[in-house]
Amino acid sequence: MDYTSRTLNRARSADGTPIAYEQRGAGPAVVLVSGALDTAAAQAPLAELLSSHFSVFTYDRRGRGDSGDAVGYAVEREIEDLAAVIEEAGGRARVHGTSSGGALALRAAASGLPITQLSVYEPPFDPVPPPGCPDADHLARTRELVDGGKVDEALVLFLGLLGTPGNMIEQMRDFPLWSELTAAAHTLPYDYAVMGDGAVPVRLLHEVAVRVLVIEGGASAPSMREAMRLVAEALPRARHRTLTGQTHQVAPHVLAPVVAAFFAS
After folding, report:
1. CB atoms within 10 A of CB 245
2. Concatenated DSSP letters for 188-221?
């Protein structure tokens, strides 16, 4: 299917920043929140699969794609961005967040946004954060590189932290994907801010009043699966689901029916 043809609309966030979004399908509203480096285009396959049952909204998070940005980032601004998209979707919506987008969606739900149901796929919390505050160190170093215009180096640092082998990173530079990733690499500090110190935010999760489906891949790292167990345990109204054979890079055709069934319940 061709996902390159896009009909963009724009919501206006509370601080005036334009947030580009797309809408597909008809039915109850669902908003998809992407993870680090991704734009609305990355969510298109999942959106298409869900659009046979729902009115699906995907959007470029602040600073990416066709959305605007503003000086002085704060996680609260991204929560306001999501609120603006939900308003365009009719004022209330089901929300699905992938990776750090799931962490953002959890924070938004805890803040009281009009989210009627929430599903998250592997928000990358650490079940046992290492001593010190390595995420703060990574954030500081990433900000230093971004502020110095060294977005390539910021991207290499991020990919290395994900465990991507150095030779694979070098090979990636030769593909068009590299330019897409570097175009969004200046927003990496935003995702570090969303993740906080990296620990499962138990106290915040206690504040999420809506039903939440916490999803993990059965082939994901044991630490990720343990983190998802802790997330589900901390949420007052959670279900926990494992997708056999899936990793952090989940297949949309496997994820879509699970999300759709939960949102229909």
Report:
1. 11
2. HHHHHHHHTTSB--HHHHTT--SEEEEEEETTS-
Q: What is the pTM of this model?
A: 0.94
Token representation of residue 225:
């699966």
Predicted local distance difference test score (pLDDT) of residue 4: 47
Say what the pLDDT of residue 131 is: 65
Number of H helices, E strands in the chain: 11, 8
pLDDT averaged per 10 residues in sequence order, the chain, 265 residues: 66 98 97 96 96 98 96 96 98 98 98 98 89 69 91 91 87 89 94 92 97 98 96 98 97 98 97
DSSP codes, 114-138: -EEEEEEE----BSSPPSS-HHHHH
Interhelix angle 100-110/188-195, nearest 10 degrees:
50
| Residue of 246, 255, 215 whose CA lies nearest to 119 | 215
Distance CA 48, CA 51 (A): 5
List b or e across 171-206, with b for residues whose CB sees 16 or more CB atoms inside 10 angstroms.
eeeeeeeeebbbebbbbbbbbbbbbbebbbbeebbe
DSSP state of 93: E
